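Task 17 of the worksheet. Students: predict the tertiary structure of the chain below and write it out as structure tokens. Keep your answer in the requested format; marks are given for formatting as well as content.
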Amino acid sequence: MTPDDRDDPFDDIFREIERMMNDMVGTAGPQEGEAPGVQATSPTHVDVYEDDDLVRVIADLPGVSRDDISVQCDGEYVTVSARNDSRTYDERVALPAPVDPETGSGTYNNGVLEITFDRSQSTTDIDIE
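Model answer:
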């Protein structure tokens, strides 16, 4: 067996690093089973934090204009959608606690979207007879 006949033990690692770098800069080619020229939905990196009063959602949306971002909330889930010339982001995230969607406010700075919601305080005691 010659060295050229063996698989490079680091080939998988280098291939994964290249895929991750392409994802970050938006130059990934068509994925397996995807036609060339089709925009792929990119996974959105979303973190959710909570404290006693607030629920905070932070999403990384590099290269997106603020006007191309859409956020919807139903009190239990938040959906972040955005689009730029090379990517489409669409992420639905379950919130760790019920929130009041009417209290939502957000900022977008340097590719980072931050949305805060007040926790919903609407609970009802139920009398059992």
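Marker's comment: The CA atoms of residues 116 and 122 lie 18 Å apart. Residues 28-39 have pLDDT under 50 and may be disordered.
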